[in-house]
Amino acid sequence: PKAVQPDGAERGVMAAAAIIFFAFYGFDAISTAAEETKNPGRDLAIGIVGSMVVCIAIYILVAVAAVGALSYTRFAGSAEPLALILREIGRPGFATFLGASAVIALPTVLLAFLFGQSRIFFTMARDGLLPLSLAKVSRRGAPVRITWITAAIVAVIAGLLPLAEIAALANAGTLVAFVAVCACMLVMRRRAPDALRTFRAPAATLVGTIGILGCLYLFFSLPSKTQLYFGLWNLLGLVIYFVYARPRALAE
Length: 252
Description:
The protein has nine helices and no strands. The longest helix is centred in the middle third of the chain and has 35 residues, at 92-126. The chain is mainly alpha-helical and 252 residues long.
């Protein structure tokens, strides 16, 4: 209830969840590697579901350990909460090691993001939605050109814009994309009920409906400014699509 929230914000828990959702980025990038896997029907299901289960378990265990070691009020506003907890319980050496590990691990996260996004742009270019020259690959079959361009775009955006707003806007886009995925699953189950599916979502109607409603609720829990930016960004994308991309895709 609003009365028990110190800052008076409505939907406090869900508003925070809409931002913390950023921590689960990456599992959907597995789907972009479908063309590069030996058995996508099996491997993608194991990778997506398995990574989500493992990550959720780790996040819950870390959260339980954190609040069990120190009151959340003492580290809630810290930029390095886990390192702060270790220092507070008399383990400064482990705190330093944890901080260094986090810095070293950053490139792995960036590589995962670049891998997924560059493959999306590569497919769009191959389908005519982007310049065809971006779909060129190296001798080993890697989309090197679009990977470099994606990295440059990400670097410029991250260097010039507030990271908090970038994260919120990225969350908005990802949530809407997940709504589309759930909707497509429901549509395909109705249009092609007998299609061969290596992995079938159990209780598809229930899972898809809950997925759509949950993602929409998280989306509307984001700041209104983020929703406005998202709408403007999509409006720009629609203009580019109908003016440039769609005619080229139909022609090809």
